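To the wet lab folks,

You asked to see what we're planning to order before we commit. Fair enough. Below is the target structure as tokens, and below that is the sequence we designed to fit it. If anything looks off to you, flag it before the synthesis order goes out.
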């Protein structure tokens, strides 16, 4: 089946051949599809995790609030999935740093946070937003998007929204504000949203990688006379607070950290 796709596709098994394509995807889009990652995160594990997520979300609120002893037999899947996604985040980050010629880059100690998104879209809400326009604040996010219900859209450089149609088995990788600051403005933080396009429940699982209290600053390889340092060093926590207090959730809070605005 031909898949309509306008964002770059990165084949994890084709490195270093895809290094320049990876950098280009980061510069031009700030996002890409990831394929051939199944020796780390298999299709079976993706589908098992989706089932776990659905069964958890389907519990009535009073049961969910108890938050104990309700996930019979699911922990194994959650643990396996968490480990696999973290491994993928490490792998992609390393490949990105290598492709940019950065030595000594490490994400050791960077926490990985998960978020489950469920939208109960209905026919009456078609055209409305599930998630409004935003960027992700961290370094990288891996999204296992709903394999059957469309809605995810990313903004291209012209400001147009491009639909990311379902592609079973593939993942979407988004670069966030930290990636833009760390790369001295070279990589793009992608604005995206989720739109209601059909009256159906929609699930996605996102994993976010970002530093905790480590300082974010561009490495020396990305700073020279032609590319002076753009952003004052910051901690992720301070940046998150800045985003929160200014309500600038679309990456614009980074402008407040420009050394030479
Ligand atoms: Mg997001």
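Sequence we intend to order:
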């Amino acid at each position: 089946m031909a898949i309509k796709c306008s964002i770059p596709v990165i084949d994890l098994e084709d490195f270093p051949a895809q290094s320049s394509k990876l950098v280009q995807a980061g510069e031009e889009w700030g996002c890409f599809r990831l394929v051939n990652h199944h020796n780390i995160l298999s299709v079976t594990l993706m589908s098992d995790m989706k089932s776990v997520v659905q069964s958890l979300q389907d519990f009535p609120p009073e049961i969910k609030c108890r938050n104990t002893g309700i996930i019979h037999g699911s922990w194994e899947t959650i643990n396996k999935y968490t480990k696999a996604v973290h491994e993928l985040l490490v792998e992609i980050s390393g490949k990105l740093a290598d492709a940019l010629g950065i030595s000594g880059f490490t994400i050791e100690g960077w926490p990985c946070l998960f978020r489950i998104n469920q939208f109960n879209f209905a026919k009456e809400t078609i055209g409305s937003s599930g998630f409004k326009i935003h960027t992700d604040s961290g370094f990288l996010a891996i999204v296992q998007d709903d394999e059957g219900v469309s809605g995810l859209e990313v903004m291209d450089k012209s400001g147009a929204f491009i639909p990311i149609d379902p592609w079973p088995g593939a993942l979407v990788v988004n670069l966030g504000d930290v990636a833009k600051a760390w790369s001295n403005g070279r990589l793009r933080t992608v604005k995206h949203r989720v739109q209601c396009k059909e009256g159906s429940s929609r699930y996605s699982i996102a994993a976010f990688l970002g530093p905790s209290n480590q300082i974010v600053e561009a490495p020396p390889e990305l700073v020279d006379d032609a590319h002076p340092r753009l952003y004052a060093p910051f901690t992720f926590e301070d940046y998150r607070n800045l985003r929160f207090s200014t309500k600038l959730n679309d990456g614009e809070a980074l402008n407040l950290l420009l050394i030479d605005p």
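Structural context that might help your review: The first helix runs from residue 19 to 28. The domain at 9-257 is CATH 2.60.120.330 (Jelly Rolls).

Thanks,
Computational group
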